[in-house]
Design goal:
- The structure is a single chain.
- By secondary structure, the protein is an alpha+beta fold.
- It contains three helices and ten strands, in the order ββββββββββααα.
- The strands form two sheets. A five-stranded antiparallel β-sheet has the order 1-2-4-8-6, with no helix packed on it. It has a five-stranded mixed β-sheet with strand order 3-10-9-5-7, with no helix packed on it.
- The protein is rod-shaped, with a radius of gyration of 51 Å.
- The two termini are about 100 Å apart.
């Protein structure tokens, strides 16, 4: 807050939430600390960029006046978000009962008989969407991620131990597959042998009886059942 003989100004900086291509506004408050009528006027170094409402006015004795400053939408951000624009507020004692229409430019001319109080306000840009705070590291300088990494420092050993059973299981599986393959081959050979013997028996039976006997058919059924069982 800035304090003068006529007015108190709060705040002493114009803080605009800055966002590209969007208007932004802020305000300040004038408090008349005298028992006289105080006229004020607001000037800026960049009048095309800002709109001040009201830019002139009368603050009654002991009363408060709010002034709103609107910044036009900007197409680009200034370097390092630093703004060189400034505002100047001038205040003088006005005649009792004066209104806004009675304010003239000559009232703010400085001379020996006319005391003009001045306040300078600088412009500050603040991010419209400030980033979320980042948790600070502990005093030892170790972050949770680092601690997690240190706890898992024995990771390679654990991985090696977990791989060994898999390799062992793989060897056992290969051995079992090889054994089953050998048994299947042996069963196929046995099947071929039985089929050959069955063919010989069939030929002999045909020669003897000229046809198939009931005993022969039963024998064929038994042999077929055994062969099918061995194959499965």
């Amino acid at each position: 807050m800035s304090t003068g003989d006529f007015l108190n100004l709060h705040p002493s900086e114009l803080k605009f939430p800055f966002e590209l291509k969007k208007q932004s506004s802020c305000s300040f408050q004038l408090t008349n600390k005298t028992d006289q009528y105080i006229a004020f006027k607001v000037k800026t170094t960049n009048p095309k960029k800002y709109c001040v409402r009201p830019n002139t006015g009368i603050v009654l004795p002991g009363s408060v006046c709010n002034v709103t400053v609107t910044m036009q939408a900007q197409k680009e951000a200034p370097p390092d978000m630093q703004c060189k624009d400034k505002f100047l507020l001038q205040a003088v004692v006005a005649p009792t009962g004066a209104a806004v229409k009675d304010i003239t430019a000559d009232m703010f001319n400085k001379d020996e008989k006319n005391v003009v109080e001045e306040f300078k306000l600088r412009v500050v840009y603040i991010p419209a969407n400030p980033p979320s705070p980042v948790p600070e590291e502990s005093e030892e300088g170790s972050s949770p991620r680092a601690e997690h990494g240190s706890q898992n420092s024995s990771g390679p050993d654990v991985a090696t131990r977990s791989v060994e059973p898999k390799e062992k299981l793989s060897k056992e599986s290969l051995s079992l597959i090889s054994k089953l393959t050998d048994e299947k081959v042996a069963a196929l050979k046995q099947n071929q042998k039985l089929q050959q013997e069955l063919e010989l028996l069939r030929k002999e039976a045909v020669k003897r009886s000229g046809g198939y006997s009931i005993l022969f058919l039963v024998l064929i059924g038994i042999i077929s059942f055994v062969v099918g069982y061995l194959i499965k």
